[in-house]
Specification:
- It is a single chain.
- This protein is α/β, with parallel strands linked by helices.
- The protein contains eleven helices and eight strands.
- Helix 1 links the parallel strand 1 and strand 2.
């Protein structure tokens, strides 16, 4: 069996206006001239999805959303459905991001419902899991991540394309660093849980690392066993930084 196809996905979070599309164009133009060895995706704010798709066309950069609602439609002011993302040109969607879990109180069950909605709309979900500093220091890191995996990834994923992103919450914007050994241990654990839970689909799904990946640490991080790409935050906002990470893969 060949290994999972690697993905470098940029999460712009709540950043970017129309002028930011120049950075996305620069990434696409560079990859058109020198193709990447990995899949590349950008997940801008919902306001930019359609405009980014129009700007980049059917080029080397896939477009994704940062979240979707579990329902197809309804009285959910301010929310965006999976069907709306597909209609706007998205192909992927990030679900269960640590910021959504922490700031919006998203439960594993709610994330699983969103995953099912994404699949129904033809979107490829990137499902995030990860432990806090308190949970790691209490020796519960693997237990917490396994619980999130089993409860956030519905059995409907079997036979479908998806990815998991491991976010060590304690290493994001804190100055603390996840060592390669830490990453290797957790990614191996995630792979074992995925294979047990979803069979062949769990073996094939790429496991992205999402702990403050930058051009300076990308090569080392991406060389760790079972790291099948990266979920990139701030470094994806600048074409030069994002391309540095892509080329490191």
């Amino acid at each position: 069996m060949t290994g999972p196809t690697r993905i470098i996905a940029g999460n712009w979070k709540m950043n970017g206006t129309g002028e930011s599309l120049d950075e996305a164009r620069a990434v696409a133009e560079a990859l058109a001239q020198s193709p990447a060895a990995v899949r590349v995706a950008l997940c801008p704010p919902a306001t930019l999805i359609w405009r980014m798709k129009e700007a980049l066309g059917a080029g080397p950069v896939e477009i994704g959303g940062q979240d979707c609602h579990a329902e197809r439609e309804g009285a959910y002011t301010g929310d965006v459905s999976a069907e709306m993302l597909t209609d706007a040109g998205a192909r992927l969607v990030i679900l269960g991001h640590s910021e959504r879990r922490a700031m919006h109180g998203e439960t594993d069950a709610f994330v699983a419902a969103k995953v099912r909605a994404a699949l129904s709309a033809g979107l490829e979900p990137i499902i995030c899991v990860g432990e806090t500093l308190a949970e790691r220091e209490a020796g519960q890191a693997e237990q917490i991540v396994e619980r999130q995996l089993l409860a956030s990834l519905p059995e409907a994923l079997a036979g479908q394309a998806f990815a998991v992103a491991y976010e060590p919450v304690w290493a994001i914007g804190t100055g603390r660093v996840a060592e390669p050994a830490d990453i290797a241990t957790m990614h191996a654990h995630i792979r074992a849980v995925l294979a047990r839970h979803l069979g062949d689909s769990g073996d094939r799904a790429p496991i992205l690392y999402g702990g403050s990946v930058k051009p300076s640490n990308a090569a080392e991080t991406l060389s760790v066993p079972e790291v099948g790409g990266a979920l990139v935050g701030g470094a994806s906002l600048k074409a030069s930084d994002f391309l540095g990470i892509i080329r490191a893969a």
